[in-house]
Amino acid sequence: METDISIPSVHHDPFTVTGSCTLCSRELTSSELLPILMKCVNFAAIKHKDQRRKDENETPYVNHVIGVANILVQEGNIRDPVVIVAALLHDTVEDTDTTFEEIENEFGTEVCNIIKEVTDDKSLPKLERKRLQIENAPKKSHKAKLITLADKLYNLRDLQKEIPVGWSQDRVKEYFKWSKAVIDGCRRTNFNLERELDLIFAERVSKDRERCACKKPLI
Length: 219
Prior knowledge:
The protein is mainly α. Helix content is 59%, strand content 2%. The chain has a two-stranded antiparallel ribbon. The longest helix is centred in the C-terminal third of the chain and has 21 residues, at 191-211. This is Guanosine-3',5'-bis(diphosphate) 3'-pyrophosphohydrolase MESH1.
């Protein structure tokens, strides 16, 4: 949960071949990682199959998690398969019937721990969940911060293109403001991703000043 971001030691690690001694242990090769990655994409597609984004076209929700993983690879230059797998699965527990136990059994303890860090406790009120995201952002692991940065970057780019169905301009402004507070807690994690986020924030401030007579910045 978002309030429980402690990371126990890794027990189940499908990304490493464990030999009889430390010297025999090794990380998987690219060809060995491919089946795990495809298993993960398929898992996410099945779990999110009935979900849609809130745009007018009702884009399949799985596009979001794939997009977040793609941002990490293409723009963040992240090559850690644990981070990419966790990015693909980052909304499964929060938004589907997936359990942490299921994630751990299928994809390992480290992936599960990262997902715990980025999963909101849905039993809490929405405003409290948002407050905790801001409060806990600086406490997250480096890998969880990477996913948070890419997730917010994807969502903010979506907002730049189209306002979700049912959202007001005030709600959009609040999302930008809240997102910046979360991102500020993840600073010094990945220069490329943070630069792209800062460009979005700067563009938003500029547009807001053009609209607002008092010229007060949004963020």
